[in-house]
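Researcher: Please translate sequence to structure tokens.
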Amino acid sequence: MKVLITGGKGQLGVDVTSIFQQKGHEVWSYGKDELDITSIQQLKQIVGRIRPDLIVHTAAYTKVDQAEADRETAFRINALGTRNVAVMADQVNAKLIYISTDYVFDGRQNHPYDEFSPVNPQTVYGKSKLAGEEFVQQLCKRYFIVRTSWVYGQAGANFVKTMLQLASKQSELTVVHDQFGCPTYTVDLAAFLTKLAETELYGVYHASNRDKCSWYEFATAIFEETGRGDVRITPVTTEQFKRPAPRPAYSVFDHMATRLNGFEPLRPWREALREFLKEWNKKG
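Model: Translation complete:
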């Protein structure tokens, strides 16, 4: 299969590129400096030349707080950029995988969100990603919309790396304890995308590692797994740790579409975290 990847140098894109290559696919992976998804002309040239069977669209504007003050950039990349990708995928009859987010929900539910739960984004970032979903549904016949959450991997910045870096400088940290979600290891997410790509089981999917936790529980697990019992973590409320963009208090996923379509669910988040840390330690 000929696979074109947008955002190929980003946190998820690096692992998507690697795993699709390992599976024997012909892969063209572009970072944002090589492919600007907001330019329909650039996309036409590249898609027209490669004529991919699949486009994995991981490129996105993900600065959640900055998006509140930079609404136009968020919508230009996440909405209009995605529109461009969807148009070009449809033109060459390629399958399209679009990576979306738990931020399309308002986080007010007290039980897991499945793929059929009503969306109600509360942030500019969430609204721009939902607009991207809508363009994909309107403009592309063969699509997978894959919502994910709390992503971390070996490339890029993320919560796990931030905790480890902070712990190397200070012995006391404060972490929010009243926001719940599902951590997702990019390697596991990328492997799931390869399985989706081999099917015609189109639609919306929630893809995260299994089980839920709070950010405080996630941080505690990071230090338990790295033997850093000396790090003291103080739980704080969202109210005490204000950010420009409101975070969903509860964005736990139910993976109903995964079950209904016969896919193997991703492994539990703690198991995935253990593997990430093992790989991270190898890098020294």
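Researcher: Any highlights?
Model: The chain has a mean pLDDT of 96.
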